Amino acid sequence: MVLLDLAKSFLANVPPDAAVADFTMGNGHDTAFLCGLVPQGRVYAFDIQPQALENTRLLLAEKGYANATLILDGHEHAKQHIHEPIAAGMFNLGYRPGSDHSVHTHPETTVKAVVDAVELLQKGGVLVICIYPGDEEGVREGEALEAVLSRYSRKRFSVMCHRMINAPKAPYILTAEKY
Ligand code: SAH
To answer: Is the whole model's pTM more than 0.85, yes or no?
Structure first.
């Protein structure tokens, strides 16, 4: 199964009027997917590249979606922008396809963003994190997230790793669901 389809499958039960977040807007494909998932809800989307917001704005206009709030700020500051519980959050780490590869996510800020996103989750809410271990930074990012998320209480969270064990460098997914 294509990784992105697997990632989206974890969000099948999100209510159509929920608030959700795309923590790594990139070119806006996940933002657009989330807009369709919550037609009566709100999508908060973050990126630090103005070009990402521009590309996303165009994509959403083309698809006729008007329920997203595009935020030019790091996802590590998400709590300054989201003041309601979220039913879902997506992280698609690494760099924006077609852009300068030097602007990519970093383990320290990613961990802060994920910890804050877990706090923003409502009961039954889920975070989906796509990790790209093809380079050293991606490997470190995955390891840092696994170290933090594995400490969450089993009584309140279900944290899973979905990984191709016959392709260790292939992208993989961490999910955290709040009970
Ligand atoms: N690797 C994915 C795409 C990832 S896009 C793929 O192959 O499809 C990741 C996005 O995260 C980029 O657009 C980048 O600008 C953004 N980003 C990097 N650091 C960020 C931060 N601190 N907060 C929010 N977005 C960030």
So the answer is: yes
pLDDT score for 12: 94
Instruction: List pocket residues of ligand 1, CB cut-off 6 Å.
Output: 24, 26, 46-49, 52, 74-76, 92, 94-97, 103-105, 109, 132
Task: Give the per-residue pLDDT at 176.
Answer: 98
Cross-strand pairs, 42: 19
Q: What angle do CA 110, 114, 116 make, to 5 degrees?
A: 120
> Which residues of the chain fall below pLDDT 70?
none
Q: Kindly report the protein residue whose alpha carbon is nearest to atom 7 of ligand 1.
A: 97
- How many A from CA of 62 to the centre of ligand 1? 22
- Choosing from 56, 95, 141, 173 the residue with most ligand 1 atoms within 8 A of its CB, the one to mutate for a pocket test is 95
CA separation (Å) from 48 to 7, 51, 76, 80?
Answer: 23, 9, 11, 15
pLDDT digits (tens, 9 = 90+) for 8-54: 999 999 999 999 999 999 999 999 999 999 999 999 999 999 999 99
On the CB side of 19, CA atoms within 13 Å amount to 13
Place of tokens 């369709």: 36
At residue 64, what is the residue type? Answer: G
